[in-house]
Design goal:
Blueprint lengths: L2 E4 L5 E4 L8 H4 L12 E2 L1 H7 L3 E6 L2 E5 L8 E6 L2 E5 L7 H9 L5 E3 L9 H7 L5 E4 L13 E4 L3 E5 L2 E5 L8 E5 L2 H4 L2 E3 L5 E2 L6 E2 L1 E3 L4 E2 L2 H11 L6 E3 L6 E2 L3 H17 L5
Parallel strand pairs: 7-8, 8-9, 9-10, 14-19
Antiparallel strand pairs: 1-2, 1-3, 4-5, 5-6, 6-7, 11-12, 12-13, 13-14, 15-16, 17-18, 19-20
Helix pairs in contact: 6-7
């Protein structure tokens, strides 16, 4: 039986003879059902139409994606303690498996929020049932359960020395970013998905409950995002698309972006 994949958000559902009646991720207000209606594909069909591209952003940081669904981009982090896949994409072809195996395989998978769960089970199985670290606050959005899923709680989880998951909340209650201490030549990096969204000009960050439906977060939801990352040093932020990168001075960008957002949402920004 095929495991159907939603073409709008990229989420893979459990094996079934027929496609699911609806995509629970797309029906919720943070995503959307396209005007054409809900459509489905499979991993085998997807392999005929899409292939992953790779970009080495810096030593040890390789972006992976195929522009499918909402354009999710994963990141392979080659850290001192092992390789971790940050976020996940629906596309997993033989070339991708061979490339990652040649670079040492995967020690772990960690995902920012449910819009990036995609085909996480397929990725885990392809790399020796690598553990998938998801925040427990978002467990109800796991539509395709897998024994490799490890739910964590609290505000931080150190995967190994220098690699830490940080719960920021915001976009989803369990919204998570990854901090790698040795990235950016030892200055530190944050991989953020769209928990911290790198804006189009790549000079600021923003924060939303729903990006396609333009639902903002409140000040009380955004201020803790800055507070969660205050203890960590970092110079670069890698966002959710290949080109969404804050290349330097990223911690200061986060601080001023939180202040700008809060002033705008509370109506205290000067004009």
């Amino acid at each position: 039986m095929p495991a159907y994949i939603c073409t709008a958000c990229g989420t893979q559902f459990p094996e079934s003879y027929t496609p699911p009646p609806q995509c629970l991720i797309c029906e919720e207000e943070r995503q959307y059902v396209p005007p054409r209606g809900q459509t489905w594909t499979t991993r085998q069909a997807l392999a005929q139409s899409h292939m992953n591209a790779f970009r080495e952003h810096e030593p040890g940081v390789i972006g992976i994606g195929a522009g499918f669904a909402i354009g999710q981009r994963a990141i392979l982090l080659r850290t001192e303690g092992g390789n971790v896949l940050w976020d996940c994409v629906s596309t997993l072809d033989a070339a991708t498996v061979s490339l990652i195996e040649g670079l040492g395989g995967l020690k772990a998978i960690a995902i920012s929020h449910p819009h990036f769960y995609t085909a996480m089970g397929e990725w885990s199985r392809a790399f020796g049932n690598a553990p998938i670290h998801l925040h427990a606050a978002d467990k109800d959005w796991i539509v395709n359960p897998n024994p490799a899923v490890k739910l964590w709680q609290g505000d931080t989880l150190e995967l190994w020395d220098g690699v830490t998951l940080v719960r920021c909340g915001g976009h989803f209650p369990g919204g998570t970013v990854l901090h790698w201490q040795s990235g950016a030549g030892g200055k530190g990096i944050v991989c953020s998905g769209d928990i911290l969204t790198v804006t189009t000009d790549r000079k600021w960050l923003s924060f939303m409950r729903s990006y396609p439906n333009l639902i903002p977060l409140s000040a009380r939801e955004v201020e803790p995002i800055g507070a969660a990352l205050k203890p960590f040093a970092f110079d670069t932020i890698y966002g959710h698309y290949f080109d969404r990168v804050i290349a330097s001075d990223a911690k200061a960008v986060l601080e001023k972006s939180v202040a700008r957002y809060v002033a705008a949402i509370e109506g205290t920004r000067g004009y």
